[in-house]
Amino acid sequence: MKKITMQQIADHLGVSKFVVSKALSGKGGVNETTKNRVIQAASQLGYFAQKNAYMKNQPISQQSTSFTGKQSVIVLMPNIRFQTKDSLYWGKILEGISEELEARSLGMVIVSESRVDHFIHVLNPDGILGMIGVGQIDSSLLLEVHRLGIPMVLVDHEDALIPTDTVFANNGDSIFRLCNHLMGLGHTRLHFLGNIQFSRSFRDRWSGFREALEENDLETPEISDPMLRLRGVDTGEFVPDFEEWIMARQKSRQLPTALVCANDSIAIRVGQALKKVGIDVPGQITITGFDNIDDAYRNEPPITTVHVPKEAMGRRAVRKLIERIEHPEQVYEKVLVAAELVHRDSSAAPSAEQ
Hints:
- The structure is a single chain.
- With 354 residues, the protein is of the alpha/beta class.
- The protein folds into 3 domains: 6-45, no CATH class; 68-168 and 310-337, Response regulator (Rossmann fold); 171-308, Rossmann fold (3-Layer(aba) Sandwich).
- The chain is built from 13 helices and 11 strands.
- It has helices at residues 6-13, 17-25, 32-45, 61-64, 90-103, 116-119, 139-147, 171-185, 200-215, 239-251, 264-276, 294-298, 310-326, and strands at residues 72-76, 107-111, 128-134, 152-155, 165-169, 190-193, 258-261, 286-288, 305-307, 334-337, 340-342.
- The strands form 3 sheets. The protein has a 6-stranded parallel sheet, with helices on both faces. Strands 6-7-8 form a 3-stranded parallel sheet. The protein has a two-stranded antiparallel sheet with strand order 9-11.
- α8 runs parallel beside α9.
């Protein structure tokens, strides 16, 4: 295959090679809009996928494969969307990463910086074995890691612009099984709650939901449905909008029999909102979540959910990173970790009146 050059990217966009070079260098000098256009074009043309096309003289490949001396892995988890080590979800993934690295006598440096200019100060390729990115990460940060030739694996996130190995829970299949369980109980009016643009995991869960309903000839929400684009799913900002929506459905006698929430945090807040407006769970509406965070079990009633093996995802990410370092020529992989249904008291068969 013919090598893609910076000049070809420049010609494609109608800009100078100098602008392309600046945009891809990570050193600034071009505005954000232009930089994003360059990155997008470079990705579409296959520039990033080329061997060594974007790496600085292979700074770590020769020294890292033997894992000699003190080696560290950067764990990048920008402090956005409640992505912190204290999180009931993200914290467990970090624990898995830490345990696997410790078992291999490797160090870990956690970085929560979300700005490129600050992030690059902690990057020292000579002392870094690789990087594991956890959760939502801006493309500009990932681009800087890619530019330096540092091997990386992403957990619960992927970037369309930059080729990497990724580790996810098997979101689509898991929610497909959950919906089939609900339909087996007799539910025919199921509704998905979340924001399908929030993350890849949410989109995959929505896809699994839709597939399950279509396979059983049940009506699915329109893509424009406001409950698929909830505001502030991580902060609870969506609750007033949900309360207004559910009361309107109740007034028109069109209540769903089951609400399939994109994660446990949404399910817990939805349960509280239903209680506030006088709707019983699970007597009138079944609620399910996803992730199996500790608060889902402590909730009243405890939330039926999907158990995501969070620590196992973290450990698998470390093993995938080691595989990538030892076999840099392998094709990139998307690893799906199996998840299991957890049946609790927030779900039940619909009542006879429904």
